[in-house]
Each structure stands twice: as structure tokens, then as C-alpha cells.
Amino acid sequence: MSDFFVEKINNRSARIGVIGLGYVGLPLLIEFSKERFAVVGFDVDSNKILNLERGDSYIGHINSDIIKNQITDNTNATVTKEFTFISQCDAVLICVPTPLNEHRNPDLSYIEKTANLIGPHLRKDQLIILESTTYPGTTEEVLVPILEKLSGLNSENDFMVAYSPEREDPNNKSYSTSTIPKVVGGLNHQSLIAAEALYDSIICTTVPVSTCRAAEAAKLMENIFRCVNIALVNELKMVFSKMDIDIWEVINAAKTKPFGYMPFYPGPGLGGHCIPIDPFYLTWKAKEYGISTKFIELAGEINTNMPNYVIQQTMLALNDHGIALNGSKILLVGLAYKKNIDDIRESPAFVLWDELTDKGAKVSYLDPFCPEIKKTREHLHLAGNKSKTLTELSPDEYDSAIITTDHDDVDYQKIIKIAKVIIDTRNACPDHDKVYRA
């Protein structure tokens, strides 16, 4: 089974399907298209399909010319909402969200819905790969049973299954989809061989591991490592602030050590599709084994509390100027979860917005990468709000500007002019009497 599949990969006769055309799936579809594969992109969002058919990008760091060349004008590329085309694909990659529910437990509904859409159209000798970040065991315990039940096929003999965690870092100038090594785990040996061959065709290096569970765990370890270290530096920021020590100066000094230290940076909280969510997937699964992940949970608690710390510092700074938070005008500078991108998923700026509003502040935002707030799962009520621009703002128009994202093309000297108090959570502003580091 895998020999025939590998041959089709090598001679570029395989058709590749990608389900979920967001920040993970769309770059994958483009890479396979660049390597002369026939590709089919699936998404339930009609707007995404229409944009791709017009040659318009809906992701800031992906140029519309790339969409036009690799998808719209490519006769070997198709985008669709129709899942019957699954049967025409030799490999199907699943790139759907894995959020947390209201109880901070894993929400696998997107994976389950996708499996239910694939199952009736699954055929023999296909390779199904899950890329969505999740807890160890999801591929075998959730995905495979649904596929087998609906297709009547057996994953050991009839079709192949693998797990390969996405490692996208939007707008990273040093690494892109094709230059980031790809961890791959197969349900069995045949599945691993097939998945390696598939990714070897578009990725610089594949890193095979023994099982799907090991691959699932590898992604969680990467993001838990970041979560814990960010929590550490966030806690140190609060401690050093009380001691009148600049955390940024300390980090710059510490990182001159050429070994044994890796710099992490504080902020207003965690954002993005990985770090605020992924650690809790392992925490939830660990309970099944009677293990309490105290270290991970403590890190999550510290990071989750950072917006409250920023608000407290804002209140103190405003008090220094005789201004109450209730009734004040607040400008959030930066809505995206990190600099120089338009990705607003899980951004701490939304938490700040809601908390500030609850305390009586009048909030607006400025972000050149996010001119209008799109619909999000948790902050739908903010959709449609539009970004301010520096040219329309007057001196001291705002009581406070809170810098939540340190975009490079924002004029921070002008930010200092338009607000009475600047709360800088990213060390973006130059030193000034108005500027408070938080």
C-alpha cells in the first residue's frame, strides 16, 4: 500500500487535499501546488472559497499574487466546500482548530465534524493526516474510530493514518512552511513511510517518531516550554518592577551569556492559536492517568492574570495624573497577538478591552494590520470595530494608550503625543515622563 503511494508522490501523480484553509492549511496547499501536485482545498467558509477563486488573500503575510499563481490560475488546483471530492484525493491533511471550551477543556468538535465529513468518502489506499494540535492519543482514539465506522474500512490494512503537528509561525522572516522540519508519526509502519514521502516532497527535513502519540506529545512539549518560560519572565517582570528594576535591561544583560540561557520576553498576556491553549490539552489528558500538572497549571495562571496586572498598572498611572479609569478614554495600540501580522486569535488585547469596558473605560484601538475586527469565537461582540489612525488623532486625545503589540511601523513618538499616559507592555516606546512599563 505505501509503496504504491510513494511512487505516486515521487512522480507527482498524487492528488493532495487540505481541509481547513487558514493560517496552517493555506500555506500547505500553496507548497504542494508549487511542487506541481494537483491540489484540492476544502473549507466550510464560503468567503474563503470566494476569495481564493478571485485570487485574493485573506491572510496578511500571504501575498495575493501567490494565491493567484498557485491556486486561482492553476488548472491543477481546486477550492471547494464539497467534501465528495475527498474520494479523488490520495492524501488528505486535516488542519482545523482545536480550541478550549468554556470549561477550559479540549474542544475536539472540529476534528470530529471533519472526520464525519471524510468518512463516507474514504477509499482504500488513502493517507489521512491530522495536523491540528491536540493531546496524545487523539489520532487513534478519536479520528480513526470515526473514519473506520463511516467508511467500513480498516486502518491497519485498507487506509493509512498519520499525525504531523503544524509548526507555522506567521510572517517569520527566517522560516517558512517549507524550511521548518516536520515531525511525523504513523499509525503503523506503512503509514509512517507514506507520510514521510509526502512531506519530503515539500519540506526540508522530516523527523520521524515511533507513534502518532509521540508526535502529538512533541508539539505540546514545544508550546509548554514556551508557555512556562513566558510565565517565568512575566512573574519576574512583576517582581523586578516592585524593586524598581527594568526587566528589559535585565533580559538584555542576561542574553549576552553564550550558553545556558535563552531569552523570553514579557507581555500583556498570551495570544495566538497555540501557547494559550495547547498546555491545557496535556493537563486535561494527564488527569486520565491520575497526574496533576502543577507546573503547567501555575504557568497558565500567571499568564492568564497578566491582563489584570496591566489594568492595575494603568489605574496607578492614571491616578498619578488625577484621572479615574471609570470614564477614561483608552487606546489599545496593537490588536494582533504578535508584531507585524494580522492574526488576532486569542489576543490578550481582547481580554483587556472587555475588562477595561467593564470598569467604565471607553476603549478604541489602533492597528495598521487589523483595520477592522473580524468575527472571533469568543469576542463576537467586538466584530466590526475599526482601527483608528494616527493622522486622525489629536494631542492628549486619550487618557491612556496601552501598547499591547509592538508593530514596527507604528510611530511611537506620536503615540506619546496623543495620550496623557502610555502603558508600554512591550518595551516599544522610548523613555519619556509619560511612559510606564507594565
Quick synopsis:
This protein is α/β, with parallel strands linked by helices and 438 residues long. The protein has helices at 2-10, 25-34, 46-54, 64-72, 109-118, 138-151, 189-200, 212-242, 247-254, 278-287, 294-320, 348-358, 412-418; strands spanning 15-19, 38-42, 77-80, 91-94, 127-130, 160-163, 182-186, 206-209, 329-333, 362-366, 398-403, 419-424, 435-437.
Strand content: 5-15%
What is the number of helices? 13
- Element pattern in H and E: HEHEHHEEHEHEEHEHHHHEHEEHEE
Overall structural domain count: 2
Low-pLDDT parts are: none
| CATH homologous superfamily placement of the largest domain | NAD(P)-binding Rossmann-like Domain
Number of strands: 13
Strand order of the largest sheet: 3-2-1-4-5-6-7-8
Helix-strand makeup class: alpha/beta
Q: Level of helix content?
A: 25-40%
Radius of gyration: 23 Å
Mean pLDDT: 95
Could you characterize what this model shows?
This protein has 438 residues and is an alpha/beta fold. It has two domains: 2-210, NAD(P)-binding Rossmann-like Domain (Rossmann fold, 3-Layer(aba) Sandwich), CATH 3.40.50; 235-437, NAD(P)-binding Rossmann-like Domain (Rossmann fold, 3-Layer(aba) Sandwich). The protein has 13 helices and 13 strands. It has helices spanning 2-10, 25-34, 46-54, 64-72, 109-118, 138-151, 189-200, 212-242, 247-254, 278-287, 294-320, 348-358, 412-418; strands at 15-19, 38-42, 77-80, 91-94, 127-130, 160-163, 182-186, 206-209, 329-333, 362-366, 398-403, 419-424, 435-437. The strands form two sheets. It has an eight-stranded mixed sheet with strand order 3-2-1-4-5-6-7-8, with helices on both faces. Strands 10-9-11-12-13 form a five-stranded parallel sheet. Helix 2 packs across helix 4 and helix 5 packs parallel to helix 6 (138-151). The longest helix is centred in the middle third of the chain and has 31 residues, at 212-242. The N and C termini lie far apart (58 Å). The model has no long low-confidence stretch (mean pLDDT 95).
